[in-house]
Design brief:
Helix content: 55-70%
Order of helices and strands: HHEHHEEHHHHHHHHEHHHEHHH
Number of domains: 4
Structural class: mainly alpha
Strand order of the largest sheet: 1-3-2
Shape: rod-shaped
Low-confidence stretches: 305-334
Largest sheet: 3 strands, antiparallel
Strand content: under 5%
Distance between the termini: 113 Å
Radius of gyration: 38 Å
């Protein structure tokens, strides 16, 4: 058997595919009236039978070869037949019962497109071109282009959806997100205090997303802005007074939390008593009181926002007494002792 020398055009390979170009050139070089599949299997042994079958189907769908007495033999389409085919195509409009040829289905498989997806797009394709009254090209080629575009769009959607997930109870912002917040001069303690509320809110929403870090950054920034709006203008630390009252800004921020003004008033006396006894001075009693009100509200309403350990931690952060060098007693008392001491403090300060 003589070697079959093929001249491959790179432009042709780019246009109709490498295997299709090889097959077309082989048919031309063999120069037979009819070429059988077996002829090509023998001459083109560097291609698999499956690759040759797909290339044949592709060339038939493109109108470059035609079948003869059976599908197993075919020939190059003549120039006269080619002109007639082009004429028929130019005058042919798509019909409601149109269905792609086998060659298109095989090419779709090469792109990894399932036949179920292909069939789901046929009606959309027909409707689109009926409206346009388009009849300029072969419907197989137009459909394959349309199908590939839709498949790529679907792959993009599937990839994005695959990355999306619900928030978990163990979720924690990435280092990059924390660095952004810390560079904005937001204390790490404040950032971590926002985490339980953020997780609870989005857990109840049940949303899927891949941008939890961005959402958390936006949430903390909003909360920090609200918190700063109630800080006293005087930056000199001072002890709390017997008749201390939160300012108007405090109640504006409180309204955003859904906690009533009456509830805040109901826990104000205990708050004053505790900090009078501690003797500590702070720059903003408003922000400390806001933490205390939120804690009491969650506790009263049995909020699942925080575990008992987290609630204890929150209590420590809101009611913490800074230890001095001569302080030996544990500043955090049992809740029953706190209640008893608060009653003593009321009598002591006559409140």
């Amino acid at each position: 058997m003589k070697d079959l020398i093929l001249k491959i055009s790179t432009d042709s390979a780019k246009t109709i595919g490498l295997n299709e170009t090889i097959l077309l050139e082989a048919i031309r070089t063999l120069n037979k009236t009819e070429i059988s599949k077996e002829d090509l299997f023998i001459e083109l042994q560097f291609l698999s039978k499956d690759e040759i079958n797909k290339a044949i189907a592709s060339l038939i769908s493109k109108g470059l070869i035609k079948t003869q007495s059976s599908y197993d033999s075919f020939s190059l389409i003549s120039q006269r037949d080619l002109k007639e085919l082009q004429k028929q195509r130019s005058n042919k409009r798509i019909e409601g019962a149109w269905y792609p040829q086998e060659g298109v289905i095989l090419q779709a498989e090469e792109y990894g497109i399932p036949q179920t997806f292909l069939e789901s797009k046929i009606d959309e394709f027909i409707h689109l071109h009926k409206e346009k009254q388009d009849s300029s090209e072969t419907w197989e080629i137009k459909f394959l282009r349309f199908l590939i575009k839709k498949w790529r769009e679907q792959e993009t959607i599937d990839y994005k959806n695959k990355k999306k997930s619900p928030i978990t109870k163990e979720w924690y912002p990435e280092i990059g997100a924390l660095e952004i917040l810390l560079k904005a001069d937001i204390p790490k303690e404040f950032v971590e205090n926002q985490l339980p509320e953020f997780i609870l809110y989005w857990s109840e929403k049940g949303q899927l997303t891949d941008t939890w870090n961005s959402k958390f950054i936006a949430h903390v920034r909003r909360q920090w802005a609200k918190n700063n709006s109630i800080i006293d203008s005087n930056d000199t630390p001072k002890p709390i007074e017997n008749e201390w009252m939160p300012n108007d800004d405090f109640f504006q921020v409180l309204a955003l939390t859904g906690i009533s003004k009456e509830f805040a008033e109901s826990v104000r006396a205990d708050f004053i008593l505790y900090w009078k006894e501690s003797g500590q001075a702070h720059v903003s009693w408003n922000s400390k009181f806001l933490q205390h009100v939120k804690f009491c509200w969650q506790k009263q309403n049995n909020s699942p926002m925080q575990t008992s350990d987290q609630l204890n931690k929150r209590t420590e952060e809101s009611w913490k007494i800074e230890e001095s060098t001569d302080q030996e007693e544990d500043p955090f008392l049992h809740k029953d002792e706190i209640k008893s001491n608060l009653e003593k403090l009321r009598q002591k300060h006559k409140i």
